[in-house]
């Protein structure tokens, strides 16, 4: 989400919201794990069943978040696309108040090795008509002056030819895939935890029943 905000909103993200969510999830996991550990230590089927119920609840929450994210993906991508294009127009502005957008696009074009929304032609496609930004040019480690480097890059068309929109979405999709894979792995581990907890609770109840008999 921080990456999406950074690409779409052009605002500096503090990450406080993400930190709060991670802390809350961490506390929940500690509490749930405590039920499992304490239940196994005390051989208490009730605590183990509470542990199982909490794991099932966590899995349902994870599935709900995954389904919601999948359903909202087209809307989020549409918003990102429109905001990305709007910010590019402001990036071409010479007004001081729009310098944030120029800095943003310089950073994106340098880090993702791209130029413009769909390509370097975007700079000359609408008013004001400009040459591609120097951030569209590959790194030049020579000792020449910056203006000479830029002039050489523009005159020889050395700048990046790929648009940033596709690069941004590829980066976001890659991060999303990582989250999905991690989510599936965690769900698998939680299912194993449920099976083992139920097996242990059943074993404890059976053993206590035999002792009582």
Automatic annotation (TrEMBL):
Membrane topology, record value: Multi-pass membrane protein
Residues in the signal sequence: none
**Which subcellular locations apply to this protein?**
Membrane
Q: Which UniProt keywords apply?
A: Disulfide bond, Membrane, Transmembrane, Transmembrane helix
Chief location bin: membrane
Which positions form S-S bridges?
Answer: 115-137
A GO-annotated cellular component: plasma membrane
One Pfam family hit:
Tetraspanin
Where do the TM regions start and end?
20-41, 47-72, 177-201
What the entry lists under PANTHER family is as follows: TETRASPANIN (PTHR19282:SF273)
Similarity annotation = Belongs to the tetraspanin (TM4SF) family.
Task: Write the protein's name.
Answer: Tetraspanin
Q: Which organism is it from?
A: Leptidea sinapis
